[in-house]
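Researcher: Sequence recovery benchmark, item below. Answer with residues only.
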């Protein structure tokens, strides 16, 4: 039996809409600013950077509770909280 190439798939409207939805996410691969593509701090992990974070035990417990309740990972909860804080009015002055 010969190994064959995977057949090319035609993108449907639904698949195109799904790709657009994923690309529009905060970490969907599009850099929010041109400088972020060349940001070298942290350890590269795909299109993200791994960092070390020190957090109070009570705050970590609350993060873990939200993660468990929503079915998301701890990193996802922390990323969304930071994103919302930076995009919202928490630090604008």
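Model:
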């Amino acid at each position: 039996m010969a190994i064959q190439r995977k057949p090319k798939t035609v993108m449907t409207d639904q698949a195109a809409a799904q790709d657009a939805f994923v690309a529009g996410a905060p970490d969907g691969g599009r850099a929010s600013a041109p400088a972020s593509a060349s940001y070298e701090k942290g350890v590269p992990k795909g299109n993200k950077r791994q960092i070390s974070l020190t957090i109070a035990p009570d705050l970590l417990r609350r993060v873990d509770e939200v993660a468990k309740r929503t079915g998301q990972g701890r990193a996802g909860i922390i990323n969304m909280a930071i994103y919302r804080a930076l995009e919202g009015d928490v630090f604008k002055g």
